[in-house]
Amino acid sequence: MKQQLKIASNHPAYDGHFPGHPLLPGVVLLAAALAAIEAEAEPPANGWIVENAKFLIPVQPGTQLTLSHEARAGGGVRFEIHSPDGVVGRV
C-alpha cells in the first residue's frame, strides 16, 4: 500500500536539527510512518517493536514523502519512505 506521508515544513524538530541547515530527525520519520500505518491497521496495532531501521537520505523541509508498506507474517510490517531522490528510510 502507498500513501503520502505529510510532515509540516514548520515541524518543531527542524528548529534545532540543525540550525542553518534543517534536517528531519529519523525518529520523527519513524513516528510519522508508524502513526500512518497504525491508522489503517486491522486489527489496530499494539506493542510493535522496531528491530531495524535505516535512514539513507536527509529530509529537508518541504520534501515530498511517500510511504509504502506491506504486512508480514506474524503480524509484522515492512515499510519504506521515499522522496523524489530515492529511498529515505526503511524498516
Explain this structure.
With 91 residues, the chain is an alpha+beta fold. It has one domain: Thiol Ester Dehydrase, Chain A, CATH 3.10.129.10. 16% of the residues lie in helices and 27% in strands. It has 1 helix and 5 strands, in the order βαββββ. A 5-stranded antiparallel sheet has the order 1-3-4-5-2. Strand 3 and strand 4 form a beta hairpin. It is elongated, with a radius of gyration of 13 Å.
Condensed summary:
The chain has a five-stranded antiparallel β-sheet. The chain is an alpha+beta fold. The protein has one helix at residues 26-40, and strands at residues 2-5, 54-55, 65-71, 77-83, 86-90.
Task: Report strand %.
Answer: 25-35%
CATH superfamily: Hotdog Thioesterase
Largest sheet strand order:
1-3-4-5-2
Which blocks of ≥5 consecutive residues have pLDDT under 50? none
CATH class: Alpha Beta
Radius of gyration: 13 Å
One letter per element, helices H and strands E, the order comes to EHEEEE
Strand segment tally: 5
Mean pLDDT across residues: 91
Q: Strand pairing plus helix content: what structural class?
A: alpha+beta
What fold name goes in the CATH topology slot? Thiol Ester Dehydrase, Chain A
- Helix residue percentage: 10-25%
**Termini separation:** 15 Å
Q: If classified by CATH, what would the architecture be?
A: Roll
What's the helix count?
1
Mind summarizing the main beta sheet? 5 strands, antiparallel
List the helices and strands and how they pair.
Elements: E1 2-5, H1 26-40, E2 54-55, E3 65-71, E4 77-83, E5 86-90
Antiparallel strand pairs: 1-3, 2-5, 3-4, 4-5
